[in-house]
């Protein structure tokens, strides 16, 4: 191309110049890729859970051997080959929004981390870990968009926040088939604010990722449609009950997560520093024992159990919620990629099931949904996200107002026992100086001092 041709192209309107179009096509391709990867991770996760349950059914030895050995191997793989892929992935995404050095962001978001997040998440689920895939999907989506931005040299404003926000939002939207929740999550949890220059970027990514998800798996409701409603005034008394119990429980769980992250005093902290793989084995045995005691109910994401409770297909129990919470904490403490979105929803559903047996003033399905939302709001202290995500997951519009009350009460109750927002608190160890980021990368998150 000679100088005259370059001059002519430069005089063209900006919207038809090659540069913006190339950037736009690559951005749209990244959003579509995020949706496709989210669907692939969902399919692979379902396969991993089927393998785990089938192996446990065929062999009485598998539930005792797979968790300690599999989680130890997953922890070793993560530390050795994929540092930065530990834990949920949402704290790393939040931290990436605050750092400015390319090297620091590269330690939090990269294609290598995305590949490791995908592979080791599946390994953890095959091994029986109580973990979700949605948090990992957020970091994978943010990594894809961030990496594309570095390749094609997007404008600094886009690189700064828009691409990462869009990737994380697209990950949530595609993982749950909840586009509104993806947008609200990006605003409330990832960014805590919405800059006008990023709003179109987020919306475009969510739409494209959502369309890709629907094209590949169809337009479905995550937990199936439930028609439970509070038809009588007295039934509304269940709203504050679910809000307080769910919110306090969620706050206690978040506080326990932060305690694991910050370490415990004495020989436990020393062991976690010197022998993280040994800690993963011990935690794996705890996961195995809980799985054996609950006939496998605590293995995996908890999706099957939560859906059965929402649809009132099983008799609720008192033990599922605490057992699932303990299994999730143990899985998280190993330092493997392990999201808490799906397990938290399952724990909240378990709390709702138990409440429906104790307080029978409202339909059981409604109690389960309200407690699920309140608990989730208590864990992440993001009531709008909890409201929208549970509403979209259940397709229940009759409970919109009760859900609003439950999540607000849940958020307030959670603050009584946990002053810090979980993901924000966890993200602090990844943000800051280059030295701090290096320390987070080298030390990992395994053991009592290494979760995310």
Walk me through the structure.
By secondary structure, the chain is mainly alpha-helical. The chain has 21 helices and no strands. The protein has helices at 3-11, 18-58, 62-81, 90-98, 102-108, 111-126, 134-152, 156-176, 179-191, 196-217, 238-262, 267-274, 276-293, 303-310, 320-333, 341-358, 364-380, 383-394, 400-417, 422-427, 434-443. The radius of gyration is 22 Å and the shape is globular. 58% of the residues are buried.
Briefly say what this structure is.
This protein is an all-alpha fold.
> How much is the average pLDDT?
80
Helical residue percent band: over 70%
With helices defined by DSSP (H or I, 4 residues minimum), what is the helix count? 21
Q: pLDDT below 50 for ≥5 consecutive residues: which ranges? A: 1-10, 433-452
Biggest sheet, in brief? Answer: none
Reading the helices and strands in chain order gives: HHHHHHHHHHHHHHHHHHHHH
List keywords for this structure.
452 residues, mainly alpha
Q: What is the topology?
A:
Layout: H1 3-11, H2 18-58, H3 62-81, H4 90-98, H5 102-108, H6 111-126, H7 134-152, H8 156-176, H9 179-191, H10 196-217, H11 238-262, H12 267-274, H13 276-293, H14 303-310, H15 320-333, H16 341-358, H17 364-380, H18 383-394, H19 400-417, H20 422-427, H21 434-443
Helix pairs in contact: 2-6, 2-7, 2-8, 2-10, 3-6, 3-13, 4-8, 5-21, 6-7, 7-8, 8-9, 8-10, 9-10, 9-18, 11-15, 11-16, 11-17, 11-19, 12-13, 13-15, 14-16, 15-16, 16-17, 17-18, 17-19, 18-19
């Amino acid at each position: 191309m000679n100088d005259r041709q370059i001059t002519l192209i430069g005089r063209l309107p900006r919207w038809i110049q090659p540069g913006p179009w190339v950037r736009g096509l690559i951005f749209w391709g990244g959003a579509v890729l995020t949706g496709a990867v989210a669907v692939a991770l969902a399919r692979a996760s379902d396969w991993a859970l089927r393998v785990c349950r089938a192996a446990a059914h065929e062999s009485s030895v598998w539930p005792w051997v797979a968790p300690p050995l599999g989680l130890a191997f997953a922890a070793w793989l993560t530390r050795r080959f994929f540092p930065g892929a530990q834990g949920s992935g949402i704290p790393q995404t939040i931290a990436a929004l605050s750092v400015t050095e390319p090297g620091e962001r590269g330690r939090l978001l990269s294609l290598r981390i995305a590949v490791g997040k995908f592979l080791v998440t599946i390994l953890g689920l095959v091994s029986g870990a109580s973990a979700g895939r949605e948090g990992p999907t957020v970091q994978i989506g943010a990594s894809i968009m961030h990496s594309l931005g570095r390749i094609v040299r997007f404008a600094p404003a886009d690189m700064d926040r828009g691409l990462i926000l869009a990737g994380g939002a697209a990950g949530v939207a595609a993982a749950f088939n909840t586009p509104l929740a993806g947008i609200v999550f990006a605003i409330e949890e990832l960014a805590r604010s919405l800059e006008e220059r990023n709003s179109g970027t987020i919306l475009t990514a969510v739409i494209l990722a959502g369309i890709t998800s629907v094209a590949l798996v169809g337009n479905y409701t995550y937990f199936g449609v439930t028609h439970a409603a509070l038809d009588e005034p007295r039934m509304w008394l269940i709203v504050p009950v679910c809000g307080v119990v769910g919110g306090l429980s969620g706050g206690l769980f978040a506080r326990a997560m932060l305690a694991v992250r910050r370490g415990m005093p004495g020989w436990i902290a020393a062991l976690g520093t010197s022998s993280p793989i040994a800690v993963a084995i011990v935690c794996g045995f705890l996961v195995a024992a809980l799985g054996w005691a609950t006939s496998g109910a605590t293995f995996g994401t908890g999706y099957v159990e939560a859906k059965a409770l929402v649809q009132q297909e099983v008799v609720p129990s008192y033990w599922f919620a605490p057992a699932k919470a303990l299994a999730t904490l143990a899985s998280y403490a190993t330092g493997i990629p392990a999201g808490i979105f799906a397990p938290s929803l399952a724990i909240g559903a378990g709390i709702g099931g138990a409440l429906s047996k104790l307080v029978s003033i409202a339909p059981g399905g409604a109690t389960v949904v309200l407690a699920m939302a309140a608990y989730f709001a208590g864990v992440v202290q993001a009531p709008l996200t909890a409201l929208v995500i549970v509403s979209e997951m259940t397709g229940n519009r009759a409970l919109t107002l009760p859900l609003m009350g439950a999540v607000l009460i849940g958020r307030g109750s959670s603050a009584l026992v946990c002053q810090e927002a979980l993901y924000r608190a966890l993200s602090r160890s990844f943000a800051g100086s280059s030295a701090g980021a290096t320390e987070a990368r080298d030390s990992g998150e395994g053991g009592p001092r290494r979760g995310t």
